[in-house]
Specification:
The structure is a single chain. Helix content is about 65%, strand content about 5%. The chain is α/β, with parallel strands linked by helices. The chain has 4 domains: about 90 residues, no CATH class; about 150 residues, no CATH class; about 50 residues; about 220 residues, Rossmann fold, CATH 3.40.50.10070. Strands 1, 2, 3, 4, 5 and 6 form a 6-stranded mixed β-sheet that branches. Helix 11 packs across helix 13 and helix 22 runs antiparallel to helix 23. The longest helix is centred in the middle third of the chain and has 47 residues. The radius of gyration is 29 Å and the shape is globular. About 15% of the residues have low confidence.
Amino acid sequence: MKNIQLINSIESFLNKVLHHLNSDIEEYKLEVWKKEKSKQSTSILSSKLGLNESMFNEFETALYQFEQYKEDSNKSKIACVRLCLWLETISKATKIEFNIDFENALINEELAIKQVRAMELLIRDVVSDQIGGNDNIITKLQTLFKQEVIDKWIKSADETGILSGTTFSELSNILLDKNIFQSVEDIFSNSNLELSKTTRDSLRLILEDIRVIRNSIAHNKKISNIQIESLNTFYLEISRLIKESKKTKINPDDYLDLSKINLENFIVDLKEENTKITGDLTDIKGQINDVKSDTTKILSETKKSNNKSKLILSSILLVLLMIGGIFYFQTKQTSATEEIGKDLKDVKEVIKGDSEIKNMSSSDDLSVTKELNKRTKDKNAKRIAIIYFDNSSSEPALDKLKKGLADMLITDLSNINMLTIVERDKIEAILQEQKLNNSKDFDPNTASKIGKLLGAQIILTGGYFEMLGSLRVDARFIDVQTGKILKADGVDGTTSSFFKLQKQLTWKIIKNLDTKVSEEEKSFINKQEKETKISFEDAKKYSEALDYFDKGNLNKSKQILNTLLKKYPNFQSAKQSLSKIK
């Protein structure tokens, strides 16, 4: 078995880590680790290791990959160096000494920086080569991102094309986007690289490791021997895949030919990129300080105005006497005033309705949907099945969000008398039975089959895409009888405003189904948006609770739901889910 010395060094350090977490433990084993984790919470363990919970989860992913592939002659080295990067981070935070010697290590910082640059250029050229050149890339990106983002990249780009205007994080996300990665997947598909369930997910983890090391270079930090060896391992594997691929003629060896001057320029570019990001944060801080300054001025003016209060009160009394004299004449105009009030109410309704549908797609009219959804009595309400939306992002951690999103839509729409919404539990059971997990699997025949099994007339499904703090959710309305897509619509905004976007999508679904909504039904949805305002992170936690419920782990699901309801007492979806457990 290769890498025996490396594996022994890793396990020796893991002994120290476990002892640090619990002084009664002397020897690391995965079973011992899991047992200790069950005793202590993730938040406690991550705090003891100097990690936040997100970093802790990434560390555990690397740990499990190490355990799974440490004896695999092809995957062992990548699994080992990925874990070593995390152990080095833990070592710095906990002050536990971590010394490791790599066999035949290439300790050359200059070459490591060249490899970082080479991998960035390789990604650009591979994407460009497979998509068909710069013009085709721009066209493709315009279908995935807002025009303002495209314009920013074009403005920052050099003569080599739009991808040169992206940051490394943006470039990685572009590569890993499902719609783009399918063009390059054959190049990177290789058993040596696949430590996760898919090549794409494995590549995401490696590119994230590279990004962290790249940031160290930008901050003038010395690259550690572990980082150098990791970069070398990643570069050799990625460049080998490209070199051996029959889909491209790109030669990775050409990309390491970087002169001393060009190398220095690359480091300067990294610093400028980092400075630009820091500058944006500085601007935000400046705006906050301006707000503070304005607030101080307002408080000062308020104090001055208090001195005038007595004079103003005297004036008000005089005005009230005048109003009393005028009141008599006003009573004669009551009927006219009531008419004006009615008109104002109508205007408010129009404005409110416009805000609910201001982003509606205008690609099709509603004639087909209207024909299908002729107004009926409540007992004949249309039966809708909301199937899980597909995660189109490059972030697998968002996969479970599909359950929370669907359940929140179901909760809102179930309160509309004109609609009968199939319960999520029934949908989950059918999907499991039919072995369907993604909306992309729903061709017209499948949609018709599932819809009939659920007794639905319309299937609502779609996808969501998150990148760089922006979120897009698209919905499709499918007629069960014909399999025809009746309508497609969507919402977009900042990721942090997820709950607001979900409510906007609810209103769009109602409008697209040409559904009559009572004042009481409107009030319920508006009240939820006003009183709950669940954060994006907590929406993911709610989705996780549903996933635990579906897998039969009721205690874990109940624990998360109770925590959420303490924070959001009026969170109706969580209340209903918890009632199924109790």
